[in-house]
Design goal:
- It is a single chain.
- The relative contact order is 0.23.
- This protein has 5 helices and 10 strands.
- The N and C termini lie close together (12 Å).
- The protein has one domain (2-166): Electron Transport, Fmn-binding Protein, Chain A (Pnp Oxidase, Chain A), CATH 2.30.110.10.
- Strands 1, 2, 3, 4, 5, 6, 9 and 10 form an 8-stranded antiparallel sheet that branches. A two-stranded antiparallel ribbon has the order 7-8.
- The protein is globular and about 50 Å long.
- The chain is of the alpha+beta class and 170 residues long.
- It binds flavin mononucleotide (FMN).
- Residues 21, 34, 36-40, 55-57, 60-62, 86, 89-94 line the site of flavin mononucleotide (FMN).
């Protein structure tokens, strides 16, 4: 993987999240790792820093790893891995070793003390900066009905992008 400047990031982030989907991995050496597929999120600037915004429900096993560790990555894999991305987004790491099941692999970076998905085209290595439980009280009822009929609201994580890694092309 090549380290790149974020100024070289040229993807359409709307497509990347909505159609390609990302795999968010949280955890460190001590806690271990877990990952989930995400299609909600974005990247931008906050407090003068380059950040990603992630939205994760409390019911996800990955939520516990996000809470207990500062190391977070988001990996974007091409659509040859669509089935793998679907599996990571439909089964819980509580029940099976889904990364192995999806024939994917974690790459652990000891300096960063976090992991990303080896098969990605590119990834962001990030440190958690801030998190907040999204209040639902003031939301439009149609959104509550659609997304929160049983509660289980999202926590928003703001993560500082520390490194942008891109797969080397041969
Ligand atoms: C395309 C797709 C997008 C998803 N986006 C999100 C998301 O943005 N936030 C979230 O909390 N769950 C999202 N999910 C659901 C989680 O990926 C799914 O519940 C996963 O199995 C949780 O795994 P875990 O329990 O091991 O953390 C998405 C699932 C799919 C298939």
């Amino acid at each position: 993987m090549l380290k790149k400047n974020l100024k070289e990031f040229k993807e359409n982030i709307f497509d990347e999240f909505a159609y390609k989907w990302g795999i968010v991995t949280a955890g460190n050496y001590q806690t271990g790792f877990n990952c989930l597929t995400v299609s909600w999120g974005g990247i931008g600037i906050l407090w003068g820093k380059q950040v990603a915004f992630l939205f994760v429900r409390k019911s996800r096993y990955t939520y516990q790893f996000l809470e207990n560790s500062d190391s977070v990555t988001i990996s974007f894999l091409n659509d040859n891995y669509k089935e793998a991305k679907n599996l990571i987004g439909t089964v819980s790491g509580r029940n099976i070793d889904k990364v192995n099941e999806a024939k994917l692999h974690y790459t652990y970076d000891p300096d960063f003390d976090g992991a990303y998905i080896e098969e990605c085209d590119y990834c962001f290595k990030m440190k958690k900066l801030y998190s907040v439980d999204l209040p639902t009280a003031s939301l439009d009822q149609s959104i509550i009905d659609r997304y929160y009929p049983a509660g289980d609201s999202h926590t928003m994580y703001v993560c500082e992008i520390k490194q942008f890694l891109v797969k080397e092309r041969s």
